[in-house]
Amino acid sequence: MKIYVASSWRNTLQPGVVGALRDDGHEVYDFRNPAPGDSGFQWSDVDPEWEKWDAEGFVAALSHPIPEAAFSKDMAALDDADVVVLVLPCGASAHLELGYAVGQGKTTAILLTESGRSELMYKMVDEICVDLQDLRDWLLDNPPVLWTCRVCGCTNDDCSQCIEKTGEPCHWVEPDLCSACVDQVGGDP
């Protein structure tokens, strides 16, 4: 199973979660080490003074080649994942990754190992686990659901034909209808 672990650079649990899931035989994307020789994206690679940016400086930095490449790499891994696991505590980027995964119909979980803020929208995910073993057991017992488009036959595991057709990955409008085919269905999807 391909798993995308969304978390924070400051989260000390993240490396152990990645390691444990790999020990269980999963293919796990690690944003800290996304590829051999790649130690992940840091804003300080763009500008050592990045913490002093104002809003305009931040927006301008998003177009710099380093964050552009990192974003593309992370999004490709996110699109390729069967499951997305949010490891708390973490910030806005990891929560956006989880929200994207929910919207894509991916299997999702949150690892909540300590009490924190209560968040109502966490109800969107498939599972909330309170310790690493709970997460490992849940992943073994709950393989991701495979959605298949009734029009083109793409799945939430492989939308390569939609990418060829539209130039971008599809998303799910219904469990049996992808966004690339919604216009081909008469009336309401």
Describe this protein's structure.
With 189 residues, the protein is α/β, with parallel strands linked by helices. It folds into two domains: 2-141, Rossmann fold (3-Layer(aba) Sandwich), CATH 3.40.50; 146-189, no CATH class. The chain is built from six helices and seven strands; from the N terminus they run βαβααβαββααββ. The chain has helices at 14-23, 55-61, 65-80, 92-103, 132-141, 160-166; strands at 2-6, 27-29, 83-87, 107-111, 127-129, 172-174, 177-178. The chain has a five-stranded parallel sheet with strand order 2-1-3-4-5, sandwiched between helices. A hairpin with a 2-residue loop joins strand 6 (172-174) and strand 7. It is globular and about 55 Å long. The mean pLDDT is 91. This is Nucleoside 2-deoxyribosyltransferase. It comes from marine sediment metagenome.
Core attributes:
single chain; 189 residues; alpha/beta; Rossmann fold; 2 domains; five-stranded parallel sheet; two-stranded antiparallel ribbon; 6 helices; 33% helix; globular
Give the structure's gist in a few sentences.
With 189 residues, the chain is of the alpha/beta class. Helices cover 33% and strands 14% of the residues. It has two domains: 2-141, Rossmann fold; 146-189, no CATH class.
Output the radius of gyration: 18 Å
What is the CATH topology classification name of the largest domain?
Rossmann fold
Number of helices: 6
DSSP E strands, number: 7
Protein name: Nucleoside 2-deoxyribosyltransferase
List the helices and strands and how they pair.
Elements: E1 2-6, H1 14-23, E2 27-29, H2 55-61, H3 65-80, E3 83-87, H4 92-103, E4 107-111, E5 127-129, H5 132-141, H6 160-166, E6 172-174, E7 177-178
Parallel strand pairs: 1-2, 1-3, 3-4, 4-5
Antiparallel strand pairs: 6-7
